[in-house]
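Sequence in, structure out. Go.
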Amino acid sequence: MGMHHRREDHTVTAVAPGGRHTAAPVVSAPVVSAPVV
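Output:
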């Protein structure tokens, strides 16, 4: 949905830096990545 971690897949790339959820949805990815970053 327009994240700053948009490289290949807005799903796997968003959780890539976190390294926690590999198959996390796009709705959970930004929520978990936002507070971490």
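Check: The two ends are 17 Å apart (CA to CA). DSSP finds two helices and no strands in the chain.
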